[in-house]
Amino acid sequence: MDPELEAFIPLFPRADLTDPIAERESFAALATALPPPDTANLDVENRTVPADPDVPVRIYRPHQAQGAIVWLHGGGFVMGDLETEHPWAARLADASGATVISVGYRLAPENPFPAALDDACAVLAWAAGHAAGLGIDPERIAVGGHSAGGGLAAATALRARDERGPAIRFQLLNQPGLDDRQETWSARNFTDTPWMNRDKVTASWRHYLGSTPATPYAAPARAADLSGLPPAYIATAELCPNRDEEIAYALRLLQAGVSVELHQWPGTFHGSQAILSAEVSRRQIAELAGALRRALAG
C-alpha cells in the first residue's frame, strides 16, 4: 500500500452497511471533514429536474464551459447526496472545464433498483433537452461517477443505447460497481481491505437490488453485448474488491470495439483518493479531470 495512504487507515470508519440509514451520518461527516473546494471560477446552482418524482441536481458551470457531464455520487447505492459530493463535483468542474450536473438520486433500501437509474436517465434526458438553456453543446454530454455512481453511469449508457436515448459522448467510470455476482479474484479475496471489502459490497448490492433479480441495467457486467457504447475512461484501485470486474469490463468494451483508457492505480484502495494530502490521490483527481477535458474537447 502507498505509505501516504496507509497512515490514514485508522481514521476510516469501519462501516458495514448493516444499517445503511445510520451509516449516512458517518459518510456525511467524512465529506465535511475535507478541505472545501475552490468555487471562485464556477457558477453553482441548485435545480430540480421534473420527473416522477422530481430529481434534485446541483450544477457547477465553469466560465465558458461547453461540454457537460451528468455526475453520479458514490456511497454503495445507500449513502451520499449533493452535499457529500460537493467537494468532488466542484473539483471536477474546475479542473476539467466541463459543466458538472451532480445528481441527487434516490437511495436504497427505501428506493431499490431501478429508482436511482431512473433518476440518472431523467437527468440525462433533461440535460440533452435543455442544452441551450444550460449553455452546453448537446453533442458533448458525458456520464460518470464514483463507485456505485460509476456503476449507475455505465447502466445509464447501456439504457440510452438500447432505448435510443440522448447521445452520450463519453463514460468516466471511477472504481465503478459493476457486478453483483462477486466471482472475481479480487471480490473473493479482499475481505478486509480499507473502507470497501467483500462483506460491504455484498450488503450494498443486497440493499440496492431488494427482491429484484439482477439485470444488466442493475449490474452492467451482466450485459451480453457492449458494442455501440460511448468511449470510456475506467480507473481501478489495486486493493479494491471491485478491481477485477472493472478490468474485465474494460477488456470486454475493447473487444466490442469501444475505445477505452484503463488506469490501474497501484497501492491504492477504494475511495482512498479522499486523502488529498497523498500525492497519488492528487494524480488520480487530475487524471479524471484530464480524461474528461480531452473527451469533451471540440
UniProtKB/TrEMBL annotation:
The keyword Hydrolase applies. SUPFAM superfamilies: alpha/beta-Hydrolases. The keyword Ion transport does not apply. Keywords: Hydrolase. GO terms for molecular function: hydrolase activity. Transmembrane segments: none annotated. InterPro entries: AB_hydrolase_3 (IPR013094), AB_hydrolase_fold (IPR029058), GDXG_lipolytic_enzyme (IPR050300). It comes from the Bacteria. Residues 69-272 form the Alpha/beta hydrolase fold-3 domain. This is Alpha/beta hydrolase.
